[in-house]
Write a structure and sequence with these properties.
The complex is a heterodimer of chains A (257) and B (87).
Chain A lengths: L9 H5 L15 H22 L7 H22 L9 H17 L15 H22 L2 H7 L9 H45 L10 H37 L4
Helix pairs in contact in A: 2-3, 2-4, 3-4, 3-8, 4-8, 5-7, 5-8, 7-8
Chain B lengths: L1 H11 L2 H37 L4 H31 L1
Classes of the chains: A mainly alpha (257), B mainly alpha (87).
């Protein structure tokens, strides 16, 4: 290759060897460890915040209250309506979902780690299946069997058109929704990871005592730009995953009239 | 005989190389539609926000939802690129 530039193989980018409990079902690699860390951080944040509650919040409690406020006003209010606010199930579910995904995404940019836990299909797929189960159960609970009638036979459509509409609705509601939810998160983070690797490899390849080292600043500045952009993407994807889950739940519990 | 010759040609056909060749096209083509879509969507959202700044918060939420749905197509193209290239 030109300039001795060699791009690492794909498996090198996303596959990590097990380093703990090797050859057992509990084998841990970087991805699994990052999922555990994300869970522990989310748990401790809200457990510590709720330990000593004060009327005027300070420190950790401030962070927790501000984030729950954000989830309630930005995600729950527009989708589930005002009765979803303070709901004992949806607020904790969506808050922990948001923080779990956000922390996993931010591992993409953490120096020395540089691998988003959501860039492997397993975690997004699990979260999407969780969202699928939650919105279907919520719909059945709210509307009974009418939920399926509502979902498969949307009102206000001429009868013969149902031959076309019902299969499309079935595929889009029950099959495509979880799939696109998982793929959206996974592909965004994987693309970001590959971008970071590309510019990092390019910068490293130009780090040589040759005349072409004068081009070094360009990929390096690009690398910094990509980092900032990926910070935005990390937060946005966590937000989008959470708000889409809320939209699906809202659609399931509030029938269209 | 002709059919045999065609079959032989088909065997020479390098599946791996053609998969890699088409991977780039797959992603490039998949990016056209969502690119236009997101551009139009955000442009209209900005226009709506400029016309009615009070509704900016609601429009922004809806805009992100729209972007998420539109962008999914490009991302599926990206996944196809990965599958063709590496799987």
């Amino acid at each position: 290759m030109i300039l001795a530039f060699e791009f690492p193989s794909f498996s090198q980018l996303v596959e990590w060897p097990d380093f703990l409990f090797v050859d057992t079902p509990f084998a841990l690699n970087k991805i699994g460890l990052s999922a555990l860390i994300a869970m522990v951080i989310t748990l401790t944040l809200f457990l510590v915040a709720s330990r000593q509650r004060q009327l005027v919040p300070t420190g950790v409690q401030n962070v927790a209250e501000a984030s729950i406020d954000m989830i309630e006003n930005e995600i729950i209010e527009p989708t589930l309506g005002s009765e979803g606010k303070g709901h004992g199930f949806y607020v904790p579910l969506l808050t922990s979902m948001f923080f779990f995904i956000l922390i996993l995404n931010l591992f993409e940019l953490m120096p020395g780690w540089l691998m988003p836990g959501t860039a492997r299909m397993a975690i997004p797929a699990f979260l999407a299946v969780l969202a699928w189960v939650v919105f279907n159960v919520a719909g059945i609970k709210a509307q009974g069997a009418g939920y399926f009638k509502e979902a498969l036979f949307p009102p206000g459509v001429p009868k013969p058109i149902y031959i076309l509409v019902t299969p499309i609705e079935f595929i889009s509601v029950f099959l495509v929704r979880p799939f696109s939810l998982a793929v959206r998160l996974y592909a965004n983070l994987l693309a970001g990871h590959i971008l970071v690797v590309t510019f990092a490899v390019l910068t490293a390849a130009l780090w040589a005592q040759q005349w072409y080292a004068i081009f070094l600043p360009f990929p390096f500045l690009m690398l910094i730009f990509v980092f900032v952009f990926e910070l935005l993407v990390s937060v946005l994807q966590a937000y989008i995953f959470t708000i889409l889950t809320a939209v699906y739940i809202g659609g399931a519990i509030h029938p269209e009239h | 005989m002709e059919a045999v010759a065609i079959l032989a040609q088909a065997n020479d056909f390098d599946v791996d190389a053609s998969a890699k060749l088409s991977a780039g096209f797959a992603y490039g083509l998949a990016a056209i539609g969502p690119g236009l879509g997101i551009g139009y969507l955000v442009g209209q959202a900005v226009q709506a926000m400029a016309r009615q700044p009070e509704a900016a918060g609601m429009i922004r939420t809806t805009m992100f939802l729209g972007i998420a749905f539109t962008e999914a197509l490009a991302l599926i193209g990206f996944v196809v690129f990965i599958l063709l290239n590496f799987a």
